[in-house]
């Protein structure tokens, strides 16, 4: 991607990755507790090419925090009723309330990307969206939502490897769709749509942050680190905790009822 500052580095070992991720997870827990007590509303948008690694980044962010605070929104195709609504309407209902972090795995920017490129909306509808969305996001921010937008970029070579892996690995085949294959074919159409989207919707109140994610481990760490740097949370204070003494049995006996124990295969 033009203007990127990606630096070639050797693949990160899993042990090193887990060590860094553990430290970032502790910070995400601090962020979670601060969000709960402060009532802050945070909305994080993840967009990018197919196979750019959005799901892996989101999983890395959420695997050690509470789903009651960190909510992931990945909407299916719109229903016929939703198609008749104002385009962004079905997304607005998922915006965070006080003390919530909402993560969009793809968002209202579908209109500027996949819908536009694949012909699911007209060019006029796409242009109308691109002109209006900065004002809508300004209204979100003015209402107290801290809005962060990330675009994940991946090279042609990595996209090919990842799509081929989905074809070859039975554990990943569910990730492969006809749309993936069509979007793979239309790389430069997506590039043009991405460039115009970033140009028209990168604003002072809701800028786009671009992450090169060819190396998934480094990409996840860099994105989480940047995300934490954008939120003025305060470190979590760890209170002194001592486990209480466990009560005595006071006549309790194990039940004689036969139980259905699962087989021990491992």
Account of the protein in words:
It is a single chain. It is built from ten helices and five strands. By secondary structure, the chain is an alpha/beta fold. The termini are far apart. The protein has a five-stranded parallel sheet with strand order 2-3-1-4-5, sandwiched between helices. The longest helix is centred in the N-terminal third of the chain and has 25 residues, at 14-38. Helix content is 44%, strand content 12%. The mean pLDDT is 93. It has one domain (22-229): Rossmann fold (3-Layer(aba) Sandwich), CATH 3.40.50.300. The protein has helices at 14-38, 54-62, 80-83, 89-92, 114-117, 123-142, 156-168, 178-185, 187-201, 216-229; strands at 41-48, 70-73, 100-105, 145-153, 208-212. α1 (14-38) packs parallel to α10 and α2 crosses α10 (216-229).
């Amino acid at each position: 991607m033009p203007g990127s500052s990606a630096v070639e580095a050797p693949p990160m070992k899993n042990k090193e990755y887990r060590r860094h991720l553990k430290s970032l997870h502790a910070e995400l827990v601090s962020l979670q507790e601060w969000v709960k007590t402060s009532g802050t509303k945070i909305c994080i948008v993840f967009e990018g090419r197919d196979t750019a690694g959005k799901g892996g980044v989101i999983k890395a962010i959420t695997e050690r925090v509470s789903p009651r605070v960190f909510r992931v929104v990945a909407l299916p195709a719109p229903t016929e009723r939703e198609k008749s609504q104002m385009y962004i309407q079905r997304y607005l209902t998922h915006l965070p309330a006080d003390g919530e972090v909402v993560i969009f795995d793809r968002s209202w920017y579908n209109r500027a990307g996949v819908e536009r490129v694949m012909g699911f909306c007209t060019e006029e509808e796409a242009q109308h969206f691109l002109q209006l969305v900065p004002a809508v996001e300004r209204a979100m921010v003015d209402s107290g939502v801290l809005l962060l937008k990330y675009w994940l970029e991946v090279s042609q070579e990595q996209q090919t490897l990842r799509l081929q892996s989905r074809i070859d690995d039975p554990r990943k085949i569910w990730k492969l769709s006809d749309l993936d294959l069509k979007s793979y074919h239309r790389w430069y159409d997506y590039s043009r749509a991405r460039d115009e989207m970033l140009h028209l919707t990168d604003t002072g109140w809701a800028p786009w942050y671009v992450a090169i994610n060819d190396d998934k481990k480094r990409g996840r760490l860099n994105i989480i680190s940047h995300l934490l740097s954008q939120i003025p949370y305060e470190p979590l204070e760890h209170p002194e905790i001592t486990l209480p003494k466990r009560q005595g049995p006071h006549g309790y006996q194990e039940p004689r009822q036969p139980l259905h124990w699962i087989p021990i295969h491992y």
